[in-house]
Amino acid sequence: MDRYTRVLLIDDDEDEFVLHRDLLGEGTDGSYELDWIDNYENGLADLKRGAHDAYLIDYRLGERTGIDLLRSMQDVGLDRAMIILTGQTDDDVDRSAMELGASDYLVKGETGSAELVRAIRYAIERCRNVSRLRFQAEILRNVHDAVFYVTEDGIVRDWNEGAARIFCVSAEEAVGRSLMEICPHPGVHPFVRSIRPAVKKHGVAEEVIHCRLAKGGDVYVRAKATRLNLQGGEGYVFCASDITKEKRLEAEIVRISENEQRRIGQDIHDDLCSQLSGIGCMTKVLEQRLRGEHAEEAAMMGGITEMVAQAGTKAREIAKGLVPAVLETQGLVSALRELAAKRRELFGANCIASIREDEGIEAISDVISIQIYRIAQEALTNAVRHSDAELIELSLRLEDGCLDLKVRDNGKGMAREPVSSGLGLMTMRRRAEMIDAEFHIKSSPGAGTEISCRVPLKK
What we know:
Layout: E1 5-10, H1 14-25, E2 32-37, H2 40-49, E3 54-58, E4 60-61, E5 64-65, H3 66-76, E6 82-86, H4 91-99, E7 104-107, H5 113-142, E8 146-151, E9 156-159, H6 161-167, H7 171-174, H8 179-182, H9 190-202, E10 204-212, E11 218-230, E12 233-242, H10 244-290, H11 295-322, H12 325-329, H13 332-347, E13 351-355, H14 359-362, H15 366-386, E14 392-399, E15 402-409, H16 423-434, E16 438-443, E17 449-456
Helix pairs in contact: 1-5, 2-3, 10-11, 13-15, 15-16
């Protein structure tokens, strides 16, 4: 050892001090130094100071006991390497000592030198480990983010201060209750739907979760879950950050973006298209005036007229893309059908819309309608441009309280992991998150691609 291991014996019998000093002196090369205190009060004071590496505590200390000493240390929350000494075996004393933080329990007269040294060494190591774990637990308890542990069936077993702050539920209220009850979700709870299966398959899961708090209000968290076996049972540790402000800001940015797109589209339609139409009329008149004596110039003017007409058509198409007027005037079903028809008209793609008439679809909120439309718009554009598909099918239906959008193609598919396949897919995924939708991509080389978005609707 690099230094002496300082041990304190708290015992009212001096003979016990001599006995244990001799036991520690046998075969230890003088590396243990034993001190002695003969009463409860001074022993407690030394324990609180922590002046020694380990403590041998007699069970009988006058009117008080070693168990009382252990209890006093537990009350002040101090960890020490403590070993209880008794004159005879007593299971109740043994059990109480262990529950109150003792590292070991030894019977006087039955303990040899090697056993005593080993007990002290293990007690010191155990105390270090307990202190380290307590320190880490204190950090986790007070960390700003939510850190909590749930069992395989979603029952909360540990809940830190961060979780209490984010979900407005104290540890006393949370422990023993279902995570789905504490953090209700508008649809199938992500813990059951995706997090638990993903952890079992990959060992980790990350997801944005929208919770409607029992005490009112909504909270969004970005959660990471990993598997942890605790006390013989399998469970999951969650680390979750509150991103409610970010989600609200994101929603506001999207709202402003949609309004700006609408304004730009309206300006293009009302101003630019009108000006191009006027220019087209003027060039047509000039073409007619030049036709008699200046045939060559008239032909050139006719070409300009045609180019202006094409520019006007293109501008109107851009305006419609920015402002899907049919979405506002006729609803989501008509807007998606027109979207598919425009893809057929512009790109010559065999794009069909398979949508059943349903009053429930037209009753969904404008926020959901706009995001579903934009996701469908991006998905169709990707399919037309990149899939080389012979058939692209867009479907929309209401089922089990959810709105299901699917865009399928029979094209070449994607060879790499679809999650990282481009900005368009990332944008669709973010739009889906904004409306609490499940978003999935299925694709493989030669087998086409399916993009699905499932939105739980409020009752």
